[in-house]
Structures are given as C-alpha cells and as structure tokens.
Design brief:
Number of strands: 0
Strand content: under 5%
Radius of gyration: 21 Å
Number of helices: 14
Structural class: mainly alpha
Number of domains: 1
Distance between the termini: 15 Å
Helix content: over 70%
Order of helices and strands: HHHHHHHHHHHHHH
Length: 362
C-alpha cells in the first residue's frame, strides 16, 4: 500500500529543488529571497531519507533476505532513466555547440566522466561528479546506498531491540559531523565542506540523511498518537527547520555537514505529524510526488535553457523579467512543464521494469 505522506514529502522536495534552480537565473532578486530559494536544494536530502524509508518498507514486507530481485528491480527503477538523462544532456550540449547557440549548461563529454556516470559511480570521482547529468551526484548517492542497504539492514536486524537499533543509528549519524570536525581541525582549517563541493556531494556527507530514513522507520511505531505529541512534532518541525535555514544561510565552516542532518530531522518530524493528522491532500500534490524522479531529470532543461533563451527573446520587446514576479511566473511554468515532460519520460523509464515484472510476475 502506497503511503500518501511519502508522496507529499517528495512533492515538497522536488518543488524546493526546482525553486533553487529557477532562482539561479534571477539573480537580481533581493538577497533574502535568493537565500531562501537556495535552501530549496535541501530537498535532495528529503529524497535520500525517503529512499531509505521506502527500502525498509519493501524489505519489512518480505520474510526472506534480499535476493537478486532486489538489485535488479532497483537497477531497472533507477538506472535506465539516468542513462536517458545522459543521452539527453549530451545531445542538447552537442546541438547548442554545433549550431553556435550560447551554452548555458556545461556537459562533460570526456570518456571517463561518461563511463563513471553510466556506472552511477560518479559521486566517488571529481571528474564527471555533477557535470554530465545535472544533479547526477545525487542519483549516484542513491544507487550507492541501494548497493549498501542489504548489509546495513542485516547489521541493524542483528540487534534484538528497537532501542538498540535506534541508538546505533543515532550514533552513526552523529559520527559523520564529528569526523568532519576532526578533519577540519587536523588540516588546520584547510579541508572544509563547502556548499556544492565534491566533499559536500560525497556519500559520506549524505549518509546521515539515508540513516535518518532507517531511524524514522524503526522509531515511528514507538511515537504515540495524541494531541500533545502532535503539538510537540509541530513545534519540533518549525524549530529544526528554522535552525536549518539559519545554519544554511550563515554558511559556517560546519554548516554543510550539519544542515543535512537538521533537514532530515525536520522532515522526519513533519512526516510523523502528517501521518497522525487527517489531512485531505490535493490530488496534484500526490501526482507530483509520484513523478519526482522524472521531473528531477528534465527540469534542468526548462530552468536553465528555457529561462535563459526566453528572457533574451522577451528583452527584444523591452521587457525585463529579471524580477520577483518574473521568477514566480517562470517557477510555476517550469513546474508545469517538468510535470508534463516527466510524464513522457516516465513512460520510457517504466518499460524495462514493467517488462521484468510481467516476466517474473513480481
């Protein structure tokens, strides 16, 4: 059974991600609005968290340990769409280069970069890390976690009590910022986790968001459903979110290995709150939540190429859309176009998985 609140959280995540990439083309907006829009990038960590949570759900429904079907299904769900993205962005880059149109989104076409992206190992290498498919580092992170999940699940299940599992996961989450703090001081401040740097993208820095998904899955059942708990969850969601925004905007040397944990914690509180309240979610929000992966892959085309070229055309008529209102209009249009184009892409992406499901009847 599909959990509606997961789709809602994914909807929030993709809307935030589209917001930050749209705002990058409207740099004349007030700085405060720009910074708040940039916080939308943290939607990636929400994806990570609920990827882990969904894996726990699928595993918990089965009695046998994860077998080859686990890897094949995840491969067919994730990789074909990414390969389509590789072809798509290389083609767009090649066409704009050949016809001498100004390129607004660089695509790395070096063989090594393309190979590590095909293998979805690009998160582990500087070359091709995030410049073959935009945002490709995050898809690689998810794939690497898919590979590691059976081992992590087996270790967690060996602990007999949920209290021990929660403590173990919490300890592993805390170890990451401690490790980066030690690295910072031992290097004399030379090694810093800067926003959107290779170290920031590295799965080690993103691992707490995934582990938070496992922690949520185990701990959720022990959280009562009453008015006081709902109030506490609402307060925690607000406080942690505001703290995360502040830490993100201030950009301290420790900001970008702690904000990922704060965002995941806030998302966990919001998710538990939503599940304990009887909300009627709008159908379009649920539909967006189900189509987030394909929307993620295509939205860069509209956010970068679409905005850049349309602005130049509009400027010929003496109208400058580089404003807050221009951003709002562009953002809404990009969400709509990404949803439509994502639906077309999803049909292609689903072909291998549907074929396999029909063949194996799984």
């Amino acid at each position: 059974m599909r959990i509606k609140e997961i789709d809602i959280m994914k909807c929030i995540a993709i809307l935030g991600i589209i917001m930050v990439h749209t705002a990058q083309k409207f740099k004349a907006m007030p700085e405060t609005i720009m910074l708040l829009c940039c916080f939308g990038q943290m939607g990636v960590q929400i994806f990570f968290m609920f990827s882990a949570y969904s894996l726990c759900l699928s595993k918990n429904a089965k009695t046998s340990f994860i077998n080859k079907n686990y890897y094949l299904k995840r491969f067919l769900r994730l990789v074909p769409g990414y390969w389509i993205g590789i072809v798509l962005y290389i083609l767009v880059f090649a066409i704009t280069t050949i016809v001498n149109i100004p390129t607004v989104l660089y695509t790395n076409t070096k063989p090594f970069a393309i190979i590590v992206n095909i293998l979805l190992l690009n998160d582990l290498f500087v070359e091709g890390n995030n410049n073959v498919v935009p945002g490709g580092w995050s898809i690689s992170c998810i794939w690497l976690f898919y590979l590691a999940f059976p081992v992590i699940w087996l270790i967690i299940k060996k602990l007999k009590k949920d209290s021990l599992r929660i403590a173990a996961l919490a300890f592993c989450i805390i170890v990451v910022p401690i490790a980066f703090t030690l690295i910072y001081y031992l290097s004399g401040g030379e090694i810093v986790v800067e926003n959107n740097s290779f170290i920031y993208f590295l799965i080690l820095n993103q691992l707490p968001a995934f582990l938070m998904g496992l922690l949520l899955f185990i701990a959720e059942g022990h959280v009562p459903n009453d008015k006081k708990i709902k109030a506490c969850l609402a307060i925690l969601t607000a406080v942690i979110t505001l703290t995360a925004v502040y830490v993100f905007i201030k950009g301290y040397w420790w900001s970008y290995f702690t904000v990922t944990i704060l965002v995941a914690a806030a998302a966990a509180c919001l998710f538990m709150l939503l599940r304990r309240c009887s909300f009627d979610y709008h159908e379009i929000c649920l539909k967006i939540g189900k189509r987030t992966y394909s929307m993620f892959l295509v939205h860069f085309l509209f956010a970068y190429y679409g905005v850049s070229y349309s602005r130049k055309i509009i400027l010929h008529f003496g109208v400058d859309i580089n404003s807050v209102w221009g951003f709002i209009v562009a953002y809404v249009l990009i969400v709509i176009l990404s949803y439509i184009a994502g639906g077309w892409l999803e049909k292609l992406m689903d072909l291998p998985l549907n074929w396999y499901k029909n063949k194996k009847n799984i």
